[in-house]
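To close the section, here is one more complete example, presented without commentary so you can practise reading it yourself. The ligand is adenosine-5'-diphosphate.
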Amino acid sequence: MLEVKDLQKSYEKDKPALKDISFNIKPGTFVAIIGPSGAGKTTILRSLNQLIKDDNGQILLDGNDIRTANKTQLRKYRRQIGMVFQNYNLVERLTVIENVLHGRLGYKSTLAGVFGRYTQEEKEEAMSLLKKVGLENFALQRCSELSGGQKQRVGIARSLIQHPKVILCDEPITSLDPASAQNVMELLKNLTEEYNLICIANLHQINMAKMYADQIIGIRKGRLVFDEAATYYQRIL
Amino acid sequence: MQSPIKYLSHKGWHQTAIIAIIGGIYILGSQILNFDNLNGLLAVPKAFAWLGVNFKPTAHSMQYFPRIWQKLIQTVLLAISSTMVAAIIAIFVALLGSKVTGINGFVQTIVRAIASFFRNIPLVAWSMILLFSFKQSDFTGFLALLLMSVGYLIRAFMEIIEDEASETMLALKATGASYFQVIFQAVLPQILPSILSWILYMIENNVRDATLVGILTGTGIGFIFDIYYKSFRFDAAGMTVLAIIFVVIALETISNQIRKVIL
Ligand SMILES: Nc1ncnc2c1ncn2[C@@H]1O[C@H](COP(=O)(O)OP(=O)(O)O)[C@@H](O)[C@H]1O
Ligand SMILES: [Mg+2]
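Output:
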């Protein structure tokens, strides 16, 4: 269970980017956060894994507040929270499987991580996740040689190998062609069910949100303007 | 909101003004320096003609070749070693000082200031200063090239880190990876091609500069060029110049090939 209470953030004085944002998400829910550009969607997502330090509020993951965690605790929270990016944020020069294995770094000792020493089980899991996202034949290909849709699926595999409770997706389909976008959304939805995940995706395509999301959160000018089960919108829109 | 037509005509006007100003500065400059443009231009072919006659190596100058070659190798090695040491220092300092991997704002400012200091003192001035402490030796030349290269490479590496590594860094940080894991698994692999490309460029550059530094520090190819020139053995001096040109072009060709493979 992810509970967010009265989240506040301003980058500049007297210009709040987030005001009193509160919502709850149950496991197994695919959530879309929608809103115009500059509304505060990225700020919310990055507060959830504390890449951005918010100013006030509570972020409870299974009852524990992430905001008050020290450095070691924060590392432990972050490894339970996967993240998927608009620009994929892969190390393009490395192979697909190396990028997937990066998702294990949070579980490793600093030295083992620095030298990229992974266990046999980790490597086998990486392969089976690549199979799951349909890239089992690309394991040894450099990421720079992949298409956008394939890169995004590598990013998703990287987050899955973290054994996450939560996956945060910041505009996961904005850089993709329509077919790849559908493909990625379908994959995220299926994974949410299969692994009982909390999957939160920032989107600005309302039709995509309606088609795939279980819960839709609307943000405007840093304020929450609605938070409803998607079925509600399917009825009224 | 400005209309596009107005914007374009403004832009055209600006360009004309800039060209006029540059032309004006040139004319003013040559007046102040008493530089005679026409005779200056006519002197160029004359200089080349003189070079062609006097610097032409003959069969007789082949006797100098082994010595020139030995000094040339020495100079190339000096350029390579100073660049490599500079690159190792620069990568550490750049990691400490870049906006994305840096420690804090204070360290970043200090690093920028140091890099700019080393870069903006001319190589000749570095050589002169170091000559006081280290006398005429290979080490003086090595140190002068090193300090200058460190200044350039820190600046270049910081920009590369900021441009190319910030996104992947963010992704790995989000997985719970520690600082050193992020540096070794994301930042360094991501920036490696650009870094190597800069190192190759710096080596080419330092071979040329090492020649100049050698004249001052009494070492390497620059030194024997100086000796041949001052003792009026122009054919040997010409031979030295040809050898330098050959090596510089060879190095450029090799590093372009390496770049093709790594990029
Ligand atoms: N690093 C920053 N510094 C200052 N202002 C920022 C920064 N990041 C975002 N903002 C501002 O905060 C607001 C919300 O931004 P963001 O969360 O990126 O919106 P969205 O993701 O919905 O487009 C915007 O007005 C943006 O200009
Ligand atoms: Mg955004």
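Once you have examined the tokens, check your reading against these statements. Chain A has one domain: 1-230. Chain A has a mean pLDDT of 94.
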